[in-house]
Predict the structure of Agmatinase.
Amino acid sequence: MTRYGPMYGPDITFLGVPACDLAALPEADVVIIGAPFDGGTSHRPGTRFGPGAIRQACYLAHDGSRPSLALRVDPLRDLRVYDAGDVEMFSGDAAGSIAALQDAVAGVAAAGAIPVILGGDHTIAWPDATGVARHLGYGRVSLVHFDAHADTGDTEFGSLVGHGQPMRRLIESGAVRGDRFLQLGLRGYWPGPETLDWMARQRMRSYEMTEIVARGLDDCLTEAFAIATDDCDGVFLSVDVDVVDPGMAPGTGTPEPGGLTARQLLDAVRRCCYELPVVGVDVVEVSPPYDHAEITAYLANRVVLEALSAIARRRRGDPWDPRRPLLDGRG
Ligand SMILES: [Mn+2]
């Protein structure tokens, strides 16, 4: 496994957490992995620059500390968080790239840590969730998937590998059960009826934005969580930043208007990681060349922090009340 040095920029880590080597993992709760791959992209490229942008998009010191106002934890200190750098993923070699990433993720899971993968296009969800399933067992990990797109295509451009197909590969291989696959935020004009029929036959549960608006996001999440935690040993959380409206996440390859707000996504990620036994996370489809004022990179950075904060708060064990005033119990 090669760790990129200066190829994609300075040798920095996520907000200054300690670096680690995938070949000699330390005792860790969370290991961050960069997956700079955009060879599966069908339209606008650029997500190979996502990991670097997500690591750096923050106005505070990169000092390995982030006390959460809302959750009253410091995820980068309460958890042992390391950054393993970027896996070598040449976008011209999709098969080699996803094999390398799957090995990296499986190694982190086998070491007892939660892999948090920074994409990259959504192709990487296939090796990400498979890498975790290699450790926990095929069919034992549910998948909660935020996205504008179902990503259940069969082949595109004659290839099984691509950012529109990872979810089908995960179900076909048995890594994830179709009936433990929860999708939230779908909208727009893809996929077509044949693919939707295939999804229904797999007994996937896919929440299109119209249903989310009609019922409310929280109601849909509560229902999805009950399915995700039924007869499973962990949950993989896959967040495509294009689930958020392009007005709040413009830097992405396949923007689809009418999505969640940034606030809704952060709250939903918090709920997932606080209420569910999350065993892996990926945050994908941040394309810095199409971003404006780093809006999307800043959001993705906070998605990662929100996930880590909620994991830290869940591990602390005491109940969390979202209505508690900020300064209550202080001073
Ligand atoms: Mn998408």
Summary: Residues 244 and 260 are 4 Å apart (CA to CA). The domain at 6-316 is CATH 3.40.800.10 (Arginase; Chain A). Residues 122, 147-149, 240, 242, 254, 285 surround manganese (II) ion (CB under 6 Å).
